[in-house]
C-alpha cells in the first residue's frame, strides 16, 4: 500500500526546493509592500454563494473546478478557487472602503484549490500572490499594478515573459459588442455546449483553445472596435503610462480571461517556455464585482500571479536564484562536555542573528562532518575533550579547508567578524 502519497494533482514543497518558492513569493510581494499595499489574509474557504456571484455562475471555475461541500452544520462552503472575491468580501466586511482613504490597496499570498485535470503547471492545489486596489477608477492604478508585476518578474531574473493587454469595455459599450458577437457566433458551426456558452457568456468563446473553433473565429467582431469614448480614452492612458515606464506589452484584442467580473483593463502574463500552461499571472479591472456580491459601487483592479508556474518559468529559463545558505555555522561536539559548550555557542550565535545548526544524536566525527557538509555551512566548529581542556575549539573554514584553534570565549566574536 502506498500510504505516503499526496492527493492527486497536489505536491509537497520540501527542502531544498521549497526555498525557491519562498524566494518567489518574497520577490513578488516586495514591490507591492514598497508601493502602499497592506497584507491581508482571508480564510481558505468561503460560502459557495460568494464565488458563484463573485466569479460567475457560468465560469469553468464555478461550474467545474470548485471544491464545494456542505458542513455538518448545513453551510454550503467552497475551498477558495481564487483570491479576489474573498479579499473584496473582507474589505467590505471591515468597512475598509469607508475609512476615507481610497483606493484600499491590499496584497495576499496563499493556497488556492481547483478541481482540474492535473498536468505540468496545472494542479488542484496551487499558490498565488495577489494584489487588489479597491475603490478607485484611475488608469494610473491599472498601470501601477502591471508595472509592479513586471518588476517582480524581472527582479527574479525572468526575461522570456510577455504582457498581453486588452480592454473589455464597460456596461455601456460591452452589451453592444456582446450582441454583435452573438450574432456572429450564431452563424458558425459550433457544438451544443459552445452554442450554449455563446448564449450565456459569448466573450469566453473567443478564449476557446480548439483549432477548429479558432479557425471559425477569424473575422469575429473585436471589442476594440466597439469601445465607447470613455473606455477608449481610459485604455489609451493605461497604455501610455505603461509605455512611459519602459514596460513593453502586446495588444491582444481577443484576450478575455476566464472570470466574469472583468471590465476595461485586462491583462495576462505569459511565459513562452511553459508549453500550454503558459499563463504565469493575470488580472484586470473589475468595476462591477462589489455590486455583484451585494456591496456598493467600488471600481477596482487587481492581479494574481501563480507561484508554481513562476517557479517552472525560472526553471525553463535556467535561472538559478541566489539563495543564501540556510546555515552559516555547524557545530560538531565530541563528548558530553563539548555538547554543553557548543550548544551554548550555537544558541548565542542564533541570538546574534547568525544561522547556526548543531550535530544532534550520538554521532561519530565522520557522520557529524557529513551533516556539516550537507548543511552548506561556511564554518564548522569542532570540539573534543582535549580542545576544551586547552580552552579552545577548532574552527574549520569549509571552503578553504583551513583549520585554526580559537578560544572558547572568542569563538562567537570570531565567527561574527568572519561572517560580516
Ligand atoms: P489558465 O488559463 O491557465 O487556467 P486561469 O485564467 O484559470 O489560468 P487565473 O484564475 O487568472 O488563471 O489565476 C492566476 C494565475 O494562477 C494563473 O495565471 C496561473 O499562473 C495560476 N493558476 C491558475 N490555475 C492554476 C492551477 N490549476 N495550477 C497552477 N497554477 C494555476
Ligand atoms: Mg483556469
The set of bound ligands, ions and cofactors reads:
adenosine-5'-triphosphate, magnesium ion
Total helical elements: 15
Strand percentage: 15-25%
Domains counted in the coordinates: how many?
2
> CATH superfamily of the largest domain, called what?
Bira Bifunctional Protein, Domain 2
Quantity of strands, as a count: 16
Give the biggest sheet.
8 strands, mixed
Strand order of the largest sheet: 1-5-6-11-10-9-7-8
Write a brief caption for the model.
With about 425 residues, the protein is of the alpha+beta class. It has helices spanning about 20-35, 50-55, 60-65, 85-95, 140-155, 175-185, 190-200, 210-215, 230-245, 290, 305-315, 335-350, 365-375, 385-390, 410-420, and strands at about 40, 45, 70, 75-80, 105-115, 125-135, 160-165, 250, 265-270, 280-285, 300-305, 330-335, 355-360, 380-385, 390-395, 405.
Features of this protein?
about 425 residues; alpha+beta; BirA Bifunctional Protein, domain 2; Rossmann fold; eight-stranded mixed sheet; elongated; binds adenosine-5'-triphosphate
Plain-language structure description:
This protein is of the alpha+beta class and 420 residues long. The chain has 2 domains: 18-173 and 227-317, BirA Bifunctional Protein, domain 2 (2-Layer Sandwich), CATH 3.30.930; 329-419, Anticodon-binding domain (Rossmann fold), CATH 3.40.50. Helices cover 38% and strands 21% of the residues. The chain has 15 helices and 16 strands. The chain has helices spanning 18-33, 48-54, 60-65, 84-93, 139-156, 174-186, 192-200, 211-217, 229-244, 289-292, 307-317, 336-351, 365-375, 385-389, 411-419; strands spanning 38-39, 45-47, 68-70, 76-79, 104-113, 125-134, 161-167, 250-251, 263-271, 279-285, 300-306, 329-333, 356-358, 379-383, 392-397, 403-407. Strands 1-5-6-11-10-9-7-8 form an 8-stranded mixed β-sheet, sandwiched between helices. Strands 13-12-14-15-16 form a 5-stranded mixed β-sheet, with helices on both faces. Helix 1 (18-33) packs antiparallel against helix 5, helix 1 (18-33) packs across helix 11 (307-317) and helix 5 packs parallel to helix 9 (229-244). The longest helix has 18 residues, at 139-156. It is elongated, with a radius of gyration of 27 Å. The protein starts with 17 loop residues before the first helix and ends with a helix. 39% of the residues are buried. The mean pLDDT is 95. The site of adenosine-5'-triphosphate has 19 residues, from strand 6, strand 10, strand 11 and helix 11.
Amino acid at each position: 500500500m502506498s500510504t505516503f502519497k499526496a492527493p492527486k494533482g497536489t505536491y509537497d514543497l520540501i527542502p531544498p526546493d521549497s526555498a525557491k518558492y519562498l524566494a518567489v513569493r518574497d520577490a513578488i510581494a516586495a514591490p507591492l509592500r514598497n508601493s502602499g499595499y497592506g497584507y491581508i489574509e482571508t480564510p481558505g474557504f468561503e460560502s459557495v454563494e460568494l464565488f458563484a456571484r463573485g466569479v460567475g455562475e457560468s465560469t469553468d471555475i464555478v461550474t467545474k473546478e470548485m471544491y464545494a461541500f456542505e458542513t455538518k452544520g448545513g453551510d454550503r462552503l467552497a475551498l477558495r478557487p481564487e483570491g479576489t472575491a474573498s479579499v473584496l468580501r473582507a474589505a467590505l466586511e471591515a468597512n475598509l472602503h469607508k475609512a476615507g482613504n481610497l483606493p484600499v490597496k491590499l496584497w495576499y499570498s496563499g493556497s488556492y484549490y481547483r478541481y482540474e485535470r492535473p498536468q505540468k503547471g496545472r494542479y488542484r492545489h496551487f499558490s498565488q500572490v495577489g494584489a487588489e486596489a479597491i475603490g478607485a477608477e484611475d488608469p494610473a492604478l491599472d498601470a501601477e499594478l502591471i508595472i509592479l508585476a513586471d518588476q517582480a518578474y524581472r527582479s527574479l531574473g525572468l526575461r522570456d515573459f510577455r504582457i498581453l493587454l486588452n480592454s473589455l469595455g464597460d456596461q455601456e459599450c460591452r452589451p453592444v459588442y456582446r450582441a454583435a458577437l452573438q450574432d456572429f457566433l450564431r452563424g458558425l458551426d459550433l457544438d451544443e455546449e459552445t452554442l450554449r456558452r455563446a448564449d450565456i457568456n459569448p466573450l469566453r468563446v473567443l478564449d476557446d483553445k480548439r483549432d477548429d473553433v479558432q479557425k471559425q473565429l477569424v473575422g469575429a467582431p473585436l471589442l476594440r472596435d466597439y469601445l465607447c469614448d470613455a473606455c477608449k480614452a481610459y485604455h489609451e492612458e493605461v497604455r501610455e503610462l505603461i509605455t512611459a515606464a519602459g514596460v513593453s506589452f502586446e495588444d491582444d484584442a481577443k484576450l478575455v480571461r476566464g472570470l466574469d467580473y472583468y471590465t476595461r483593463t485586462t491583462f495576462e502574463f505569459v511565459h513562452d517556455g511553459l508549453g500550454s500552461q503558459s499563463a504565469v499571472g493575470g488580472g484586470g479591472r473589475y468595476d462591477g464585482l462589489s455590486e455583484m456580491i451585494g456591496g456598493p459601487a467600488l471600481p477596482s483592479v487587481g492581479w494574481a500571479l501563480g507561484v508554481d508556474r513562476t517557479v517552472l518559468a525560472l526553471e525553463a529559463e535556467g535561472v538559478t536564484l541566489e539563495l543564501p545558505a540556510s546555515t552559516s555555522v555547524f557545530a560538531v561536539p565530541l563528548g558530553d562536555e563539548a555538547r554543553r559548550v557548543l550548544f551554548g555557542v550555537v544558541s548565542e550565535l542564533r541570538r546574534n542573528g547568525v544561522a547556526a545548526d548543531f550535530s544532534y544524536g550520538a554521532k561519530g566525527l565522520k557522520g557529524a562532518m557529513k551533516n556539516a557538509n550537507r548543511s552548506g555551512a561556511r564554518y564548522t566548529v569542532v570540539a573534543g575533550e582535549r580542545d576544551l581542556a586547552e580552552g579552545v575549539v577548532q574552527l574549520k573554514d569549509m571552503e578553504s579547508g583551513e583549520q585554526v584553534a580559537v578560544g572558547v570565549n572568542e569563538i562567537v566574536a570570531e565567527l561574527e567578524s568572519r561572517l560580516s
